[in-house]
Design goal:
alpha/beta, UDP-N-acetylmuramoyl-L-alanine:D-glutamate ligase, Protein-Tyrosine Phosphatase, Chain A, 2 domains, 18 helices, ATP binding, ligase, metal-binding, cytoplasm
Amino acid sequence: MMRSFPQTNRLLRPSTYPIACCVNQFRMTSGSATSSSVSRYEESVRLLNSLQSNAATIKKLREQRENLQAMNLPQCRKYLESLKVSEKNLESLNIIHVSGTKGKGSTCAYTEAILRKQGLKTGLYTSPHLVHVRERIRINGEPVDEKTFAEEFFHGEVRDFRNGLQRIILFSVYDIISQEHSENMPAYFKFLTLLAFRIFIKLGVQVVILEVGIGGEYDCTNVIEHPKVCGVTTLDYDHISILGSKLSEIAWHKAGIFKKDVPAIYSPTNPEAEEVLISRAKSKSTPLAEAPPVSAYHFSRPISPGIRGLHQFSNISLSFQLVKTWAEKCHFPLPGVSLSTKIGKGFDIPSWMCDAIESCRWPGRSQVISTDKKITYLLDGAHTPKSMEACAEWASEEITLLKKENVKKIVLFQCTADRCPSTLIQYLKVRFQKKTSKKFHFQPLGIDQIVSCPTQLYSSVDKSADSTNLNASRDEQMEKALQCVESWKESMDDPNRITKDKMKVFDCISAAFDYIETESSSQEILVLVTGSLHLVGGVLNLISTKTHQTVI
């Protein structure tokens, strides 16, 4: 049953969290050995990191992926049952579900910013995180605080003293699941998804924007049965060992989030993938529409989006469609917007919606940071062919705007998982300079040197650190780093002219970062950091730590 919103843009609604209604009868205590929430948070992160699969395990999982994928959602439902999270609880979150390859996070961020602008209490679930794992679970645009994260994570209990008896009831996610599913603990992402649902329910958010992890059909976020609207962002080649090597195969997985009678909107794609989206929508009785170009909307004033790059306008259009469709389904008024406009068509964009688009921030995507050490960082977590092409175009524009054509340019690059360095790094060879409104002129981007390294922040692993990533071994990542520098060399017109001093490989992000800072002692440097969001996150972490700048 659809929940109707009252005719107001300022809503408050009591939590439907099952424990919250019982606090007057129960005494709540903490079983943690440490007293501070910060210490409990660090312990939470350590336990969470223990749920990561190591490189050898991941290789085996990929070999058995068909069987394991089919088990994923039934397992999720069992975990939710243990946590006493019902379908009604999930339905109360009024979810907007978003899959796709390129632009998922940005689309979700724009969607959240627009709805928050109208006074809604928002929840946003995305991945991966850049610096702190709490970034994945946001309330009103801000990462959930350490105290809430730690309390919901583990060592929470309720003592029931009614009828003269003492009864301990566990209510934290880790304690419940480890007690009832000790032999089959959920993996890292699945656990965080469960934790996010619990936090959103407890805090009584009024809308959740839920980003798919990988694919869609078998992704654990697809455990939801009744989202209000679904979106599919630009499709591209990624996670091919899991989703397939053809866009039609990838589209099949992405369309797996479609539900009966739930509207879905997709960003423009190629005919092969579009045919699959349409076919799957028909088989699921899903109303489907394509998001129009941004030129189809009537803006009340010119806008400068908070996330840079021309490619963002596709994400903005999709976010407009998701917001309007959601508002229509939930009977929530959007001042200045006609909800009767047909899905997939442009409409009037009022000033408050322009403000939301301009205020939206999404770190690690088309981000520019200047330090006091003569270094300008251009950071973009592009890791697919289309996103790398868009990254190169954006970097070219920034180099011109910042007047950095004549400074030394370094690319700090690494790719992970099953991604091929040569298919991505080729886009860094050229620079896009607009010549007319319809044509681009290509010229060298001007990269003087490549630096590569594993996406590990430091050479030693701290298992209680948010940045810890155990999914690939050190040897594998070092091998990939060597492939990256060789691919860059081979992409040059005359590879033989590229000397070894132009190709640097380090064992961790910190070592690479220190090298770049040393190089800046004698000259101004522009650094393009791309290829991996984990790499971008590590650099942001170090910039924040060493320069005390707020970067997230």
